[in-house]
Amino acid sequence: MLTAICRLLLFFSFAATPITFPAFDVSMRSVADIPLPQGFERVPVAPGSFAEYLRRLPLRKDKTIYFYNGAVKPNQSLHYAVLDVSTGAKDLQQCADAVMRLRGEYFFGKGMYDSIRFLKGDRTYYQFAAYLKNNAADTRGSFLKFMETVFVYCGSYTLEQSMKRVNDVYSMQAGDVFVKGGAPGHAEIVVDMAVQRSTGKKIYLLAEGYMPAQDMHIVLNPVNTKMGPWYELTDEQKIVTATWVFDKGQLRRW
Questions:
Q1: N or C end of the chain: which has fewer CB within 10 A?
Q2: Do residues 193 and 202 make contact, with C-beta atoms less than 8 angstroms apart?
Q3: Cα 200-205-206 angle, rounded to 5 deg
Q4: Where in the sequence is the domain holding 61, given as residue range(s)?
Q5: Other C-beta atoms lying within 10 Å of the C-beta of residue 184
Q6: What is the Cα–Cα distance from 96 to 122, expressed in whole angstroms?
Q7: How many CA atoms, within 13 angstroms, populate the side-chain half-sphere of residue 80?
Q8: Taking the CB of residue 211, how many other CB atoms lie within 10 A of it?
Q9: Number of domains comprising the chain
Q10: What's the CA gap between 186 and 177, in Å, rounded?
Q11: What is the pLDDT of residues 102-112, one digit of tens each?
Q12: CA 132/CA 113 separation, integer angstroms
């Protein structure tokens, strides 16, 4: 009951105040194409890094969010763009699952199967390399089936427990995750960052999945709508996103 009430409060609190967002440009192909506020430039990322992978994530031309069953999400006002990443046909790939999916996709693309591992509630790990030895061949289908198992038995709590706390929010990096473990819980991943050279001010983009399972998307900034999907690093204790409110102490790193 508490979970349902929290979701309703979040939905109506943000839906009641329309968000004016910048026009979506269908020519954008990836996160790297999302325009920056004036005076900002993207921070350098290492070639082949997780941060570079996230910046290269493809965007769909259609910015409509669909649920896992093909239904259109009723509220389409809280996001800027939709990531071109499959959701699956089951109600499994939700918030923390979306974060783990991106992490797994990164390592799968690099052939680093030993690094595709996610913490379970019993403090052991689901490991893709072991899964391949016992169940399947090295195929993309095998990877997606493995991730479905992860989605069932892992979640925001285990994700939070498997990551290290970032004590200084100003040291944020692309790939870091805001995560609140538990029920209700939520997770959003930093997919890009930029800096204003004249002031040193940093901004970042957040992506999320949600419940029920739905297309991953870039969330809008409900506090400063002029920033579109960009969030500014500040001294504020609370980070108010389009669908959740995090404490800055909930920032985690792989």
A1: N
A2: yes
A3: 140
A4: 2-253
A5: 16
A6: 18
A7: 28
A8: 15
A9: 1
A10: 10
A11: 999 999 999 99
A12: 9
**Structure tokens of 62?**
């259609």
Q: Considering the entire predicted model, what is its pTM?
A: 0.90
pLDDT at 134: 82
Residue 133 backbone dihedrals phi, psi, to 5 degrees: -65, -35
- The residue with tokens 């910015």 is 63
- Amino acid 8: pLDDT: 38
239 has pLDDT over 60: yes
Pairing mode of beta strands 245-247, 238-240: antiparallel
DSSP 167: S
CA–CA distance, 31 with 243 (Å, rounded to integer): 20
> Residue 6: helix, strand or coil by DSSP?
helix
Q: What is the 3-state secondary structure (H, E, C) of 69-81?
A: CCCECCCCCCEEE
Token pair recorded at residue 47: 């070639």
**Pair 195, 39: CB distance under 8 Å:** no
Tell me the C-alpha distance between 242 and 178, whole Å.
13
- Residue 236 pLDDT > 50, yes or no? yes
Q: Which amino acid is at 232?
A: E
Q: Which amino acid is at 19?
A: I
